[in-house]
Design goal:
- The structure holds 2 protein chains of 2 kinds.
- Chain A is an all-alpha fold.
- Chain A has one domain.
- Helix content of chain A is about 60%, strand content about 5%.
- Chain A contains 6 helices and 2 strands; from the N terminus they run ββαααααα.
- In chain A, α2 packs antiparallel against α5 (about 105-130).
- The longest helix of chain A is centred in the first third of the chain and has 29 residues, at about 30-60.
- Residues about 5-25 of chain A have low confidence and may be disordered.
- By secondary structure, chain B is mostly helical.
- A two-stranded antiparallel sheet of chain B has the order 2-3.
- Chain B starts with a helix and ends with a helix.
- The chains are: A mainly alpha, B mainly alpha.
- At the A-B interface, β1, β2, α1, α2 and α3 of A face α4, α5, β1, β2 and β3 of B.
- β1 of chain A pairs antiparallel with β1 (about 155) of chain B.
């Protein structure tokens, strides 16, 4: 069994060599840094949009299809019953209803759902530059998985 | 003083839940009480979760489904967004500090996120009684896992397997407590990949994130140091939960009046919790979390079986 290695900050020649090797890998890779920056900026943007649109909804602005005060009539229903009772759209049809405050709220939430794809696109470019084939393949597949999930093709019809 | 604060927070948490439970049986409660109560509850969940070192949504789904009048479909949809938002806001710092490795995240996330779609579709298809029973069993099992699991700070591992070597998975980070750089690698990656398929299905099905399962698998099976396991798990959730969150969003199972206060409450609470963590001794909080999980898990189980 191997122990994961701890490298002390000693002055011995071999330790310094070992430390130099480790410090090279302690450095965060440029693609990881870029990915982290994208996540940071985009996630806070999404949360800010979510907060503003929610305040509009709670304030009664933008003509919601179901006003907050009527929500107790519906929030105990299953998602299928709710869709039937409120004529709620499925898939991306909500985009055509963003003039209503309750659907406008979904913009910030949907944005949070594409943050990872934006990050992965940056990784795709970085791995292409490095010609890192296994990671190009995995990153491409991940983008496809998320895009398929977001596309709305996986749909459960009301039982 | 901090211990008093924690004790007060726990008392407040219990009081809030009891008040919410009483209000749930009172039709005359004004509508605006619910989002406010949800904001307060999730704020406290955020504090407790950060102090206990667990993800917020593992507490969120069972507690909110036990005490609030919302349907489990919408709670699970919100739970995924809670986990997603927390992960997205925490991951950048962990990635920049090298406490998370993208080379480890990417293969695990691919299988977990694909599986979480299956989990979400299953979760939206099954009858509520079965889901509540399964959720009860799952949450009770997680509580038992928390009691008995012993994480290892820096596990001893054998030779990295061929796949881990091929993907060049490993790295190093600076351990402040010892003043040393720690290099690490993983082994048993194929077994880990299989387990992450199962974790993805559970995460998508119940909307509870997956940190409770990610960390033990990364730490105890793959042999990643605990800090790397926690950081990598947090970064993984941003991807795993995204796929499942889209399924719930497209299905209409995300109600802003439930999701937005929950996300804001947990994020604010976890920031307060992290600040308290610097001076608090959170071991007792862990026991409170275990008790809360046991209570919520058993309640969900009894509800699901029609005995609640």
């Amino acid at each position: 069994m191997n122990s994961q290695t701890s490298v002390p900050s000693s002055n011995s020649k071999s330790s310094i060599n070992q430390l130099n090797n480790v410090q090279a890998s302690v450095e965060v890779s440029s693609e990881q840094n870029t990915y982290a920056n994208i996540l940071l900026v985009c996630s806070w943007t999404g949360i800010a949009v979510m907060l503003v649109t929610f305040l509009l909804y709670m304030g009664g602005f933008n003509n919601p299809t179901v006003s907050p005060s009527d929500m107790p009539l519906y929030w105990g229903m299953s998602v299928h019953e709710y869709a039937l009772a409120t004529h709620a759209p499925s898939g991306w049809a909500w985009l055509s209803m963003i003039s209503h405050a309750d659907y406008l709220n979904l913009i910030g939430l949907a944005f949070l759902g594409i943050v990872s794809v934006l990050g992965y696109l940056s990784l795709f470019v970085a791995y292409m530059r490095k010609k890192d084939l296994p990671y190009i393949t995995m990153v491409s597949l991940e983008i496809i998985v998320i895009v398929l999930a977001a596309s709305g093709i996986f749909n459960i019809s009301a039982g | 003083m901090i211990e008093n604060l924690i004790a007060h927070a726990s008392t407040l948490f219990t009081t809030t839940n009891v008040a919410v439970a009483q209000a749930a049986g009172t039709p005359g409660v004004p509508w605006w009480v619910w989002p406010l109560a949800l904001l307060a509850t999730t704020f406290l969940i955020g504090i407790v979760a950060a102090l206990a070192g667990v993800g917020g949504s593992v507490l969120y789904v069972p507690i909110v489904s036990s005490f609030f009048p919302f349907n489990l479909d919408f709670i699970r949809g919100s739970g995924l967004f809670v986990a997603l938002a927390c992960s997205l806001s925490a991951a950048p710092k962990l990635l920049k500090s090298n406490f998370a490795s993208l080379r480890l995240v990417i293969p695990l996330a691919l299988l977990a996120s694909a599986s979480s779609i299956i989990g979400a579709l299953l979760g939206l298809s099954l009858p509520q009684s079965i889901l509540k029973t399964l959720l009860g069993l799952l949450i009770t099992s997680i509580a038992i896992l928390f009691i008995f699991s012993k994480n290892s700070e820096i596990p001893k591992i054998g030779h990295p397997d061929a796949l881990a070597r091929y993907l060049n998975i490993g790295g190093a980070y600076f351990e402040t407590s010892s003043g040393k750089d720690v290099t690490w690698s993983v082994w048993r990656l194929p077994q880990g990949l299989i387990l992450f398929c199962g974790i993805g299905i559970i995460a998508g099905m119940f909307g509870i994130g997956a940190g409770w399962a990610n960390v033990p698998v990364l730490n105890l099976l793959l042999g990643a140091p605990l800090k790397i396991a926690v950081g990598t798990s947090m970064s993984l959730l941003a991807i795993t939960d995204t796929s499942a969150a889209w399924i719930y969003l497209n299905q209409g199972a995300v109600l802003p009046i439930i999701t937005v206060p929950s996300v804001l409450g947990i994020m604010a609470g976890s920031r307060v919790g992290v600040k308290l963590l610097r001076t608090a001794k959170p071991k007792s909080i862990r026991y409170i979390v275990i008790l809360m999980l046991l209570f919520a898990g058993l309640k969900s189980l009894l509800d699901g079986l029609g005995w609640g």
